[in-house]
User: What shape does this take?
Amino acid sequence: FNRNENFLTRMFTLEYSYWFDYLLPGLETLRMPIPLGGTSNHFRTDRLRELQGWDPFNVTEDADLGIRASQHGYTVGVINSTTYEEANCAVKNWIRQRSRWIKGYMQTWLVHNRHPLRSLRKLGLKNWLAYQFFIGGSFFTFLTSPIMWLLFFYWLLTRAHWLQNIFPSWLVYLGLFNLLVGNAIGIYLNLVAVFRRGYYDLAFYALLNPIYWQLHSMAAYMALWQLFTKPFYWEKTIHGLSKFTHAKVQEAAHKAA
Assistant: This one.
């Protein structure tokens, strides 16, 4: 509800919009595992008890529960509705919150890969691959992104020939292709996010997605450090920092209408 407060809330809103309006419904359509979000979940109680509820040691316990539901052959659906919440508007607070989420993805990926063949049998090849790329690929991308950017800019400024001696030319060009196309897809996802809810004033900010991703990388390295030093520590997110409230935003929208 505070999407226009600052750069961070605008990017947060774009991210949530494509996540809940496009990516999760897409996973539902393809009948792939859905990592649950932390709000507005509805469960059949008997099924929840059968899954043994939430893992108290996983700091993103809802995502883990979505994977376990898929392993048991259950389908998680997406309801066409809206839950308004406060987009994090402070960088340090955002990094703490996101580091917990990413650490939970790391935990979920590690737990379900203790016995990868067993998971493969339970999930099936399509769902197993989706889980590997969607859960594992997310934090792996965050961790490697700054390294790739640094190598790219270093090569761009120095034309360092020693890099070509380490990496074969086809791999260098493949990396450049992934860098350009990958970021273009990230920008495109953020751009598409504005249409369903009419957030056209946020369209320009889609171009700034590579900057927003570097914040994810900072949170990912914090998550990786905590995974070894304090794996079950729950980074608290401070809420109520926004100068907006949902009631005020709704009131302003009614007046404008």
The two ends are 17 Å apart (CA to CA). The chain has one domain: 7-236. The first helix runs from residue 7 to 29.
